[in-house]
């Protein structure tokens, strides 16, 4: 058996200065059961997970090892900043492309207007995002 959950339970219990017996009493189980969890010999009954997570102040999904669905606020902010940077770069690149294509005579008015419109949309998205 994987002992990751057991190590996590043990660590969180100790952070709370709680004995195995105290944790067991709060869950209405034996301290032997808690000991087995922490040694990786068994897992908590699924019905105990919400209460156990509450006692240990941890998200039940994290207790179960499912942290993939959690994205920290910092990660979300970094993702948002990256997306906004991409919009800025695309908007700038389109504007430069229109300029260069017009200078070398390889585009017509309709194509230039379309590319400039897309450029403005990209830059507009970044400006709207700053207001929020």
TrEMBL record:
Keyword DNA-binding appears in the UniProt entry: yes
Record field: transmembrane: 85-105, 111-128
Record lineage: Bacteria, Bacillati, Bacillota, Clostridia, Eubacteriales
GO molecular function: DNA binding
Signal sequence annotation: none
Domain of life: Bacteria
Alphabetized Pfam families for the sequence: HTH_3
Database matches in CDD domains: HTH_XRE
InterPro entries with a match to the protein in the record: Cro/C1-type_HTH, Lambda_DNA-bd_dom_sf
Annotated source species: Anaerofustis stercorihominis DSM 17244
Keywords, ordered alphabetically: DNA-binding, Membrane, Transmembrane, Transmembrane helix
Name of the molecule in the record: DNA-binding helix-turn-helix protein
Segments forming domain HTH cro/C1-type: 9-63
């Amino acid at each position: 058996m994987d002992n990751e959950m057991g190590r996590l339970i043990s660590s969180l219990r100790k952070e709370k200065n709680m004995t195995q017996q105290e944790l067991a009493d709060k869950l209405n189980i034996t301290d032997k059961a808690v000991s087995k969890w922490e040694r990786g010999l068994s897992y908590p009954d699924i019905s105990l997970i919400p209460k156990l997570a509450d006692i240990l102040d941890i998200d039940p999904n994290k207790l179960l090892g499912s942290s993939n669905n959690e994205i920290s606020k910092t990660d979300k902010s970094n993702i948002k900043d990256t997306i906004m940077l991409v919009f800025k770069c695309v908007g700038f690149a389109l504007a430069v492309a229109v300029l260069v294509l017009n200078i070398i005579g390889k585009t017509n008015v309709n194509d230039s207007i379309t590319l400039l419109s897309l450029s403005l949309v990209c830059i507009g998205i970044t400006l709207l995002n700053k207001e929020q």
